[in-house]
Amino acid sequence: MTTIQDPSLATGRASPSLLSVSDLHTWFELRQWGFLRVGAVHAVDGVTFELAHGEAVAFVGESGCGKSSLARTLLGLHRPTQGEVRFDGRSLDELDARELKAYRAKVGYVQQDPYGALPPFLDVRRILAEPLIIHGVKDREEREQRIRAVLEEVRLSPPDEYLGKFPHMLSGGQQQRVVIARALILAPAMIIADEPVSMLDASVRVEILNLLRGIQAKRELTLAFITHDLSTVRHFAERIFVMYAGRVVESAPVDDLLDHPQHPYTQALLAAIADPDATNASRQREVPAGEPPSLLHPPAACRFHPRCPHFMAGLCDAEDPPDFEPRRHHLSACWLHR
Amino acid sequence: MRESTLLRVDDLALHYQTRRGVVRAVDGVSFELRRNEALVVLGESGCGKSSLAKLLMRVLPRNIHHTGGRVTLGETELGTLSDERFRREVQWSRMAMVMQASMNALNPVVKVGQQVAEPLRVLRGWSRARALARAAEVFTLVGISTDFMTRYPFELSGGMRQRAVLAMALVAEPELVILDEPTSALDVLTQASIMNALKRVKRELGTSFILITHDVATSSELADRVALMYAGQLVEVADAGDFFNEPAHPYSRMLMASVPRLRQRQRPEAIPGQPPSLFDPPGGCRFAERCPHRFARCARDPESIRIGERRRVSCWLFGDDRRDHGGRTEGGGT
Amino acid sequence: MIGVRWREHWEELRRYPSALVGMAIIAVLVGLSLYTVIAIPYSEALDKWRGGEPWQLHPVNAGSLWADRLVGGRQPSTLVIDSDAAEVEEAPFEGGRRLRMSLAFDYDYEGFPSEINLFLRAEGHEQRPFARLLWQAPDGRELMLGGYRIGRDHRISLSQDRALERRLGGLVPHIGLLAEPDADAGAQPQVQPGRYTLMLDAVVFDEQAGIDAELVLYGRVHGIAGTDHQRRELSLALMWGTPVALAFGLLAAVGTTITTLIIAAVGVWYRGWVDATIQRLTEVNMILPLLPILVMVGTLYSTSIWLMLGVVVVLGIFSAGIKMYRAMLLPIREAPYIEAAQAYGAGNLRIVMRYMIPRILPVLIPTFVTLIPTFVFLEASLAVLGLGDPVLPTWGKVLNDAQSQSALYNGYYYWVVSPAVLLMLTGLGFAMLGFALDRVFNPRLRSL
């Protein structure tokens, strides 16, 4: 039944992990008048996983499920409220300022909105030089060489055509290539891409995803690809983590997850996604009732239980479901697998 | 009656004047829409599809350089109406629009129910109670509990607000509703349930729709007909079944091949190149530069060529003399 | 590197005629400043502005020459008749000489001079020479003006000679000496045109030494801008006022904008108590009245322009501008590119200085340009209030003098108009450029 086609997956799992996240919580406290604590947004609420060297994974979920907060916590932009992120065996909490800066060179970041991600008042050369300058590459020649090399790598060639351009002179796809180039220029070990294509046109999306995946494979990078769009993940990730209300509810190799979703939420999500087809217009889609829960007051126990068609009273709303492994390498946090 | 034409658009044009020159956002667009039919205008960002919608609804910026063409709704030729008569007789009551991101354009200090009932009170002079009662019916139809009518917009989620805006467009029972990217800012599940609501409205009220979107998968949720727009022009207009199963225009084919699909293992393929600038679009076929089937004739403006009953394609590959040279089969091979 | 962007903006700016006019005005003012600074060195300007000796031959409160000629007037400008150019008859006698000088001049103006002085210099004499003066009018009338014993440096103020005034029938000498005779009593005296001569008949008790004489008929118009009550040329103050005003405006605008901007950006970036402190300081500062504080500093401490500049900048640091910049910077703080910069390791200082501030600079340039004249006006207002720099000639000081001499009441309009026009031109030039820049840099304001 399991459909692991990609041989790299097996090796990926065997190799030592690059990033390990355990019981991570990132909460944002809400205060009234600046000091009175009135609650907390449970953006990331107990997430545990490991990423191997050279592995490409996708975090999938709807907006407000905490996937972007997770990305920022991994990048060290938010401090975890509880739990830890270990990179190459070191916890981010232990790092001093200098080590944290070194960590930032090892993790590249690709954002959603390519235009917003580029300072509009700098040209491409300067944008790409910035990380190098910050990390002490003082030699102008060397910087220029590295900038040109990375532009070639993201297929903005010849580089001369782009070096002097400002972001507003580039198309969305070219802007995103510059963003990717900037994420790569410090030769990171891992790239975190938060919705890298959701603001781009359909025809450009594939290009950018192919590019990212190609570079990931060539440089043997670890790629964490965050998206709301399940239809794009099959070709661009090896493993998928499905997130709901701050938690990972299901994780599995990509084909296994898409072909045999185990968690009711994943099933609902897959059922809601249309592939272009003329018969869609005459069919009502199955959509679970209700709205994603507020992260300020998330439901007790299983976060999905108020919307779940298989809700079991006294269990789903009483006790957090542990990760079950209904299929090989396929984890699902649902009491149905009990 | 069901098969009769509701909206006829002939050779519509809209050019903007900007400091850098004239932008030919809509450049010779023609199509027809029947009653209770949903037409999807599909296109990438900047192809002029939103301008088309705004032109139909007469919500235009001030920097118009040129408009042209004819729009006929039912028996009424809209071009002959003054702005005042258009507002009184057509807007809301016969033709309504849900604009892009309009869910964020609700008045923040007026209760949602009041806002939805507003068109009835203004246009038809209904009493408050009567208008609210009607608004409640529409709320149920689009899938919001009537409890939300007494809430303010900020108390509603994005999906709820989008439904409220939809309710407002539907409340005066217009024959035609134009939806500009109605779900693009929403989550997958919310998107699906709003599309469900639209299907229900179409079935129950017999409303016609023009759905403007860049999202091929979403477009298939409602489409009876698909009009594919590229650089200000329609390159293909076809029934949804024909379009999704067997796209004809090279751009249609490449666009369909670039869509990632959840249930297929085939790898999507990108379209190389970029759309031309609308400031000074190239003469001849505007897709020619990116087209793998380009040949000498593409330097001339393509005619709109009819294939079969209900399909028009603007591509010389379908010209009579070309078809003998196997142009179509060659193109179909991709 | 930013060249391309600026070139685009320049191309765009050129399309606004108001921008071109504004830039032309500013260019003229800057050109005038540079010329002034080079042509009249600072120390020389200060020296001259102190008044006295250098202005001896200038009239008091004269209007501008070109303004008079422009409206077809023929008011007199200053005439200086020097004995070097005059005929001198010399007749030696026992123990001395007798010198007869005729200081002749043609007078063909509409109005009377404003004053007549005779400067006599007799150097190297053991015994002071004696001179008698005889006035000859064109119609041949002769008038004895009296005899004087001449000192080494002697000034005879004919205009102040009360006895002469009585003899002239109650007309002040500088009118009476040049007036048409036999005018009806009570009628306005008229100028008698023609050649006048002042005969100087001197007895010198020395073989060698001579006498230098200078007859000065002070005009009623003088130079480009006229003169003030201390005979000083207003053009000096108007010219030197330009670099002072521009420097003050520019330095104050730069000083307040940069400090305000940096403080606002620091507050926005660090948030929390840093931001709160800055906000409270700003709010307190906003209710402090600037002008009264400046008046106080000027009265109690010093009215040096550089001290005033310092006070303006210091009080400007926590000005209302902070609120505006804060509002602009808040969304920028959340911009993805700032987050990206953090993610690749940019430090706090770098983010504030390299990523936040440059983002709003384009929006600030127009505000900055329109801010310059407000400080120019502030400096002028202070000077009008009597708190101008004690030594520097400035536009405001000219206005202050004009006010204290009741210039408008006395009809010396030029005294008020010329500095006011320069102030308005400055305001106009910067405002026209600033508003055009605003349209270029903030396209949302642009009407098509």
Characterise the protein shown here.
The complex is a heterotrimer of chains A (338), B (334) and C (448). With 338 residues, chain A is α/β, with parallel strands linked by helices. Helix content of chain A is 30%, strand content 24%. Chain A contains 10 helices and 12 strands. The longest helix of chain A is centred in the middle third of the chain and has 18 residues, at 202-219. The relative contact order of chain A is 0.15. The model of chain A is unreliable at 1-14 (pLDDT under 50). Chain B is an alpha/beta fold and 334 residues long. Helices cover 31% and strands 24% of the residues of chain B. In chain B, the strands form 2 sheets. An 8-stranded mixed beta sheet of chain B has the order 6-7-8-3-9-10-12-11, sandwiched between helices. A 4-stranded antiparallel beta sheet of chain B has the order 2-1-4-5, covered by helices on one side. In chain B, a hairpin with a 2-residue loop joins strand 1 and strand 2. In chain B, helix 3 crosses helix 4, helix 3 packs parallel to helix 5 and helix 4 (128-142) crosses helix 5 (158-170). The longest helix of chain B has 18 residues, at 188-205. Mean pLDDT of chain B is 87; it is low at 323-334. Chain C contains 15 helices and 9 strands. Chain C folds into 2 domains: 3-49 and 232-445, Orthogonal Bundle (MetI-like fold), CATH 1.10.3720; 76-218, Sandwich (Jelly Rolls). The model of chain C has no long low-confidence stretch (mean pLDDT 87). Chain C is α+β, with helices and mostly antiparallel strands and 448 residues long. Chain C is elongated and about 105 Å long. The interface between A and B is large, with 39 and 51 residues.
CATH fold name of the largest domain in chain C = MetI-like fold
**Bulk shape of chain C:** elongated
CATH superfamily of the largest domain in chain C: MetI-like
CATH topology of the largest domain in chain B: Rossmann fold
What do we call the CATH homologous superfamily of the largest domain in chain B?
P-loop containing nucleotide triphosphate hydrolases
Query: How far apart are the first and last residues' alpha carbons of chain B, in Å?
Result: 40 Å
